[in-house]
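Hey, I'm writing a tutorial for new members on how sequence and structure tokens pair up, and I'd like a real worked example in the thread rather than a made-up one. If someone can provide the structure for the chain below, I'll link this post from the tutorial.
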Amino acid sequence: MGKYKVCVYAICKNEEKFVDRWMDSMSEADQVVVLDTGSEDRTVERLRARGAEVAVEEISPWRFDTARNRSLELVPEDAGICVCTDLDEVFHPGWRAALERAWTAGAGQASYRYTWSFNADGSEGVVFWYEKIHARRGYQWVHPVHEVLQWVGPGTPGRKVAVHAEYTVCDDKPFAGYRFFQLCFEGIHIHMLENFDFRAGKTASVDDAAVVKLIAVNGIAFADKAGDYAGICGNAAVENERCLYILEFCEFFL
């Protein structure tokens, strides 16, 4: 037992093949809860067999923030630290100890280094810092895609701490890569149009400006991948036109 009660929570659908690896990785937590949103394979059965607490609920209309918030409701109120992950993600061994070393009394969120993909030679590809670890109270997920945590509690949120530990994502689904950038682009409109004052030419805060820049960089990365993903989508002309628009839109913010 560590200093804090650590609870991992996740959403999933038809991810049977990741269950054993994910549960092995999450075994350092005190509790694992999962919201299954309509699996047609043996995901639920296998998760329960491995000790996860699983609820089943279809989210309609689909929104990532709604699903994340429903899964967060499964986390007990006495949890000290909430760790949001997906089933195709893997934490490096020792992640809990690293998290507890970084977490201090009054902390609200933890940021950590996230390796999203690897190059053909095994070196790191896309890497960024994530903030999906948080205190139990006062937070909720917002935005239907490219969802982020938002403080909704009274007063001000606790401080953010940095965890010097990594985790990576299984990168064996080429279409998933395309969908990632596609969802990022949809998030660009939601987040940028809500948080960027076009008349003043600025965002509401330094933190938000950093987020807008990150989304713009992701959007440009999507545009750069047009050739790679056009074959997957089956319509190169449409994808190239979309990517030109994304490129122009994103470069405005950089």
